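FORM 7B: Structural annotation worksheet

SECTION A. Query
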Amino acid sequence: MNRLRNASSPYLLQHKSNPVHWWEWGSDALAEAQRLDRPILLSVGYAACHWCHVMAHESFEDPDVAAVMNELYVNIKVDREERPDVDHVYMSALHLLGEQGGWPLTMFLTPQAEPFWGGTYFPKEPRFGRPGFVPILKEISRLYHAEPDRILKNRDVLREHLSKGAESDGGSLSLADLDHMGQRLSELIDTEHGGLQGAPKFPNPPILEYLLRYARRTGNEDARRRFLLTMEQMALGGIRDHLGGGFARYAVDERWLVPHFEKMLYDNAQLLELYALAYAQTGRALYKDAAEGIVAWLEREMVTPEGAFAASLDADSEGEEGRFYVWSLAEIREVLGEEDAAFFAKVYDITKEGNFEGRNIPNRLITGEAPPPLELRLAMMREKLLERRSTRIRPGLDDKILADWNGLMIASLARAAPLLERPDWIGLAQRAYRFIHVSMNRDGRLGHSWRAEKLVFPGFALDHAAMMRAALALYEATNDDAYLADARTWRNVLLDDFMTGQTGCLAMTAKGADPLVVRPQPTHDEAVPNANGVFAEALVRLSQITEEPSDHRQADEILARLVGIARASPLGHTSILNALDLHLRGLSILVAGDDPEPLRAAALRVPYLDRSVRWLRPGATLDEDHPARALASPSHQTRALVCAGMRCSLPVETPEALVDQVREMLGP
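SECTION B. Predicted structure
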């Protein structure tokens, strides 16, 4: 019996009619495996995954394949976005087996859920140098029952390695160390196409942020150029949806032309704030358009009826990857007419032969901004083509609401809004925040995923860390103390429910959550920044806003532990290093007085990489240990002070003087 009909995950619901007797992950499935003494076949994927669909069509929808699966295994289907903890444990096991990893993840487990072998996509018939799926199913089952010692040996080795947490070497890092690593990172950037060298190309936002921080900290123009080159090439390439806005997950080639067409909320959240920073650095319309395109796509396609943000858009439609997004020259001519089509084709690389399997992925060949009349003409053409595209069969929408991914987007909207002068984005962020705070919150503890009135609870470390960070971003943008209170609540939850005494790091799962074979404690960044890095940044920002000694001590202590881990593999821990940069050189801007808006607006236009902002209301006083206490005495006079650690500037009274003071205190 297939048990997925009552699942809330769109990915699981895609499999509800399979002849496979699927179970959802949980104690009932494990109990069944133990009762029957059968191995578990665990299949992990997500709704927007192209190769997940391929394996489903080839094998899981085939009655003959399903019959073998049902006879030999207890079969469990998992949505990796709904259960990132399960995905992390078994993907880590696959890596220990020497496999590169990816989705669908196909793992074989003992009835106690201990991994002993696995892979990713298995074709139904032998090809790509891989054996067929059915012979694999039969051989693994034979080994389990006939040669249990081989199974147990693999199990024991994997479990031993999975149980090891990240270890700190006890060392520290200075700004000079960060600069040295920044120079090494800069040398890894592709000087022609941007991004890390080679293919496929992923945006890697935490790494790009680290590169920009290095450039801003040192004044290194070469690093700055490489950051901007990467942002430019992505904005010009096919990885960007030039008609509808937003970015695909990655490009399969080295020049950002051919995307893996799925669109993920978390990628676009991180890229939005980077494009806002690139625009603040240069004033280039290309970067502003890319940022505004992300939000236009978000508002048009990703806002749920509840006001929060959906998780992803599929790569496939009508059974074909990218079909929704590609064009023939003939259709372009049909929509635009001969003259406009010829102009559009020249700008966006549209040919009769096509640049992708006989079709065309729009990508912009003109690197510079065209004169305003031409840009307006191109915008009108894009609007016409977008309207035509909207009549096509759309890719599937995974409309579950994930607290962590929403937290990333909420913070990004709040940070990008002042840099691009889009105050309306604050309201968009607040509406999503309100839903999560009300509907996914139980006494201060968050759930992870919400869909169709079902909440996956308890949430994970990244849910609380990302929403803490989002609360602080909204506090800075609105000065509403409720956001500051929420940030402190989620900080306490992370310290109480997720911090582990053994390593001093956050575990993914809360105390008391359903146990896995190990309690995962990853520290490295993946497609999203790691919870430890996000938490470290939030703690630093909280301490800069409040300037309370206890908040500073907490940030110091946790960063000290995390930096000792990051030293061994800096490129995999850039979210931690970014938090350290903010800690070592970030400024705290304090605005006081009756008419704060001009100074607050100027403070918020200072890129968030460099500052935290607080408005001191008239009559309010600062903590007795605050470095600006003597200078910010209760007064109705509007003024701003800029503090670096325990050193503060004299009060300034105009936005221009504030900008000058910030520039002077930041250095190069």
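SECTION C. Observations
The first helix runs from residue 10 to 13. Residues 116 and 157 are 9 Å apart (CA to CA).

SECTION D. Sign-off
Analyst initials: ____
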